[in-house]
């Protein structure tokens, strides 16, 4: 895996996609799915979370899943770390021989979402992030996620300057991979182009990642807008799974991530290289449906060979 594709998709099914599933998927089944996903040609794969099992039982098996999935040259397996204790778990897993290559931290760009989602103030969360970045040091590739980068369900529209402020703060900590979270799926292509343009002009050394939700059916359009504005990294999930839970007050129903199968098919039709094997990707999408026991949201999965046209 020496040739770098024009666009890199990070497959998030095994973490973001499963986080709010009502049933716990066995570690062996997760590992089998992750091996299938890796076989599609992904360069970045979200493998697990080191969240406390009391709060998210789905990832009580984080270390077991990591141990069961073999590392691959050129592939970064990413684990979410919500607090300093999680970073220490990632380091301990690495010391035992199989930790993640990449870890991610989260801040919310609004005070309201920070207090509702993280149960602390933005100032307190930034203290957490600073400690996590210090602890991680050079052990991992670090990713900083700015949640509610466009709109907050509690505070309303988020100023682009606030997102830039958070991105600058991440960069000051040495975190130069920065994901932009459209947490409630309210972004539009013009807003995406404007925000991405502002950030790339101000921080040309940073690598920005689009993490868009498809709550309003605009996920693919927003990805194309981000691509046109210069982004080359996108977070997606098989079948459009994941996102925040629909049951919470601001869920508004469907909240999934951008669907991997559909975005990869669109990019191929546009002549944009993703480095992915689309036949294997669609097989992985069918395996994800079988694992969860229900049809998911990939439109191109129903088209078979016609999806290539």
UniProtKB/TrEMBL annotation:
InterPro entries: Aldolase_TIM, HMGL, PYR_CT. Pfam families: HMGL-like (PF00682). Keywords: Lyase, Metal-binding. One of its GO terms (molecular function) is lyase activity. Residues 7-282 form the Pyruvate carboxyltransferase domain. Belongs to the HMG-CoA lyase family. NCBIfam families: PRK05692.1. This is Hydroxymethylglutaryl-CoA lyase. It comes from Muricoccus vinaceus.
């Amino acid at each position: 895996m020496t040739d770098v594709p024009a666009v890199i998709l990070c497959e998030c099914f095994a973490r973001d996609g499963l986080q709010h599933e009502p049933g716990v998927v066995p570690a062996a089944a997760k590992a089998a799915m992750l091996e299938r996903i890796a076989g599609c040609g992904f360069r970045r794969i979200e493998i697990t979370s080191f969240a406390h099992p009391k709060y998210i039982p789905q990832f009580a098996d984080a270390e077991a899943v990591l141990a069961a999935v073999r590392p691959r040259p050129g592939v970064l397996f990413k684990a979410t770390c919500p607090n300093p204790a999680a970073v220490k778990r990632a380091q301990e897993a690495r010391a035992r021989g199989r930790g993640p290559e990449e870890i991610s931290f989260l801040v919310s760009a609004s005070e309201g979402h920070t207090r509702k989602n993280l149960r602390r103030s933005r100032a307190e969360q930034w203290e957490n992030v600073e400690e996590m970045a210090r602890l991680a040091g050079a052990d991992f590739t670090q990713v900083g996620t700015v949640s509610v980068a466009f709109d907050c369900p509690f505070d309303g529209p988020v100023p682009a300057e606030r997102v830039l402020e958070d991105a600058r703060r991440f960069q000051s900590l040495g975190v130069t991979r920065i994901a932009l979270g459209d947490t409630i799926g309210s972004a539009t292509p013009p807003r995406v182009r404007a925000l991405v343009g502002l950030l790339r002009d101000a921080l040309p050394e940073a690598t920005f990642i689009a993490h868009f939700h498809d709550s309003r059916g605009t996920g693919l359009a927003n990805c194309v807008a981000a691509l046109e504005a210069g982004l080359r990294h996108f977070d997606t999930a098989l079948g459009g799974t994941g996102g925040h839970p629909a049951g919470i007050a601001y869920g508004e129903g469907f909240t999934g991530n951008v669907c991997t199968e559909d975005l990869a098919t669109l990019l191929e039709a546009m002549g944009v290289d993703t480095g992915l094997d689309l036949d294997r990707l669609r097989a992985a999408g069918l395996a994800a449906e079988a694992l969860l026991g229900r049809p998911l949201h990939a439109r191109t999965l129903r088209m078979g060979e016609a999806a290539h046209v």
